[in-house]
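User: Modeling request: complex.
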Amino acid sequence: MGVGNYTEDDVRECSRAFTGWTIGNTEYMTLKAARDSVWPYGRLSYHFEYKADDHDNGEKEFLGRKGNFNGEDIVDIICEQPATAEFLSRHIYSFFVADEPPVPEWPYKPPRDPKAIAALANVYFESNYSIKAMLRFLFKSDFFKSDEARFQRIKGPAELIASVMRLTEEFGKPDISMNPMSQQAQFMGQHLLSPPSVEGWHWGTEWIDSGALVERVNFASEHFGNLDNPGVQSLVNRILDAGDDIAPETVVDNALVELAITEISDNSRDALIEFATKQSEIATADQTPRERVVNILKLAGATPEFQRA
Amino acid sequence: MIGALLMTTAAETRTKRLTYNRTIGVAAMQGRGFYYPWAVSVAADGRYFVLGRGSDSDPRGTRYTVMDFDEQYYGTFGAFGKGEGQSLWNNCTAIDSAQQLYQSDESLHRIIVRNLDGDLLDTWGEYGSDEGQLNGPTGIAVTAEDELLVVDHQNGRIQKFTGNGKYVSSFGAPGSGDGQLNLPWGICVGPAGDIYVADWGNDRVAKFSGDGEFITNYGSSGSGEGEFNAPSSVAVDDDGYVYVADWANQRVQVLDSDGEFVQLTRGESTNSKWAEEFLDTNVEERAARAGANLEPDIEFNTDDLHEQSAHIEKYFWGPTHLALDNDGHLLVVDSNRHRLQVFDVG
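Assistant: Request completed. Predicted assembly structure:
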């Protein structure tokens, strides 16, 4: 629902409604968890158990409603709140369309596209709280497909890593060599499967700080810079399809196409062309045209446009 | 051998071929026990050589653990790595008549050969799709001629080698037609020399002659009796009964020599000797476990049998390999539960 849409009293009443809800085999599962025990035969998945004797059957007041609520009633009441609809809509919009402000600012900053959020919230209610219906609506909407939505999201660490690895074709099937990639995400601020709080990660511009940006740029540079990667070889082949002697400007434009950077600022493009031109002017005998293309790919990976999606 | 009779709810009379006997092993990242065991081979002296896969987060499980039916422990050998005698993704193990111990490494595309003391004798195999090359070797089995059958998983074929890695022949090709294989996993040689392949991606067991001529397929996709979902391993006893580790269905099925369904089991595990010893020294866990219901009645919101096996401890959870020992037992490698479930055959 988002901070500001409920009180501490609501939280307390809510917890009363969930009394009696627990995990089955509570003592054994708790002990195994405390000991991180895999003995004798590995993990046991948790299962739900309702203990009626432990439930508080008194009257509760939650979000302005009164009754002898149980957990399901609390879920229903939360689903019925307009704040829930807006909260979910902003999250979905932020994940698929364009970065919203960081979540803690939502009580004070309006949505980037209020009409889109209102439309999503409307679908939420009309579909009886169906996330599936919201996504279907979103993917068919004009605001999802509009030019204004392109490159308006900072790639999250996992997205950045995946986008690089797909281009370099280092990932084919599950392989043990992929394990370090999860650590790379951690270096960039996203410890996979371990968000910093129940609120999750703060997306958008909060992915970028001076340390994380260096990690992001270095990661892209390292992987685009390895000509042994099959995907990099394919990229270079296509970029130099017309021959090794094509103009620096053409090399840059070809590289941008290959990296799916379909829109780029003049600043970024000019910087790439300047680099490509100087590189060709000072080309040394031991640097091949293919290696010079790789250098351009490395620099293109550092552009704001590649860091966005 | 005549099996006992089992009355079913449909009032049919069937032959019960498998009877649960015991569970062997306990989870152990190192030393006595297993951590994601993947396959087992049985030596002439009756010892079990359990090959561990380990996990990416703790590769100490990438080892052999040697023990016997009575859980007498004989030690471990092998280690995770790319070096000599090391392996990354252990898949299967087999022993030839000279008591040479083979293991396949799915990641490094090679076969490691040792003696039963664990001493490295040979390493062979190279990555590729040409004749004699391997791409992700999985199941292995030894023929009566002491040649090694290797399931060339990613190449969708079976290759035969001499024990020292000289290419002999090949059969099968990727696909779903008769004689074709889709990411095959396990393999065994039947009493008449026929070759059985757990055709993982095609949800069936394929039967070939010893020369690699296609004979027939058993089963089809599904979760009913005689149907399979990604079978991982197959074993055939002296009477021709076919045992199939029905991996994604989290069960073992028995077929007769004509491929007709006989029996299935989801697993019946009890505490092994080593598990009891663990609980003897961890009395709090024993007490808490004694008060727990390990077969809870859960309303699952999915048909995925993986979920059931993750909750019900006695069930198989990811059965990866089957082997018959020298004394009429079927060993089921119950990988995610770090144990072997042992059944009497007959």
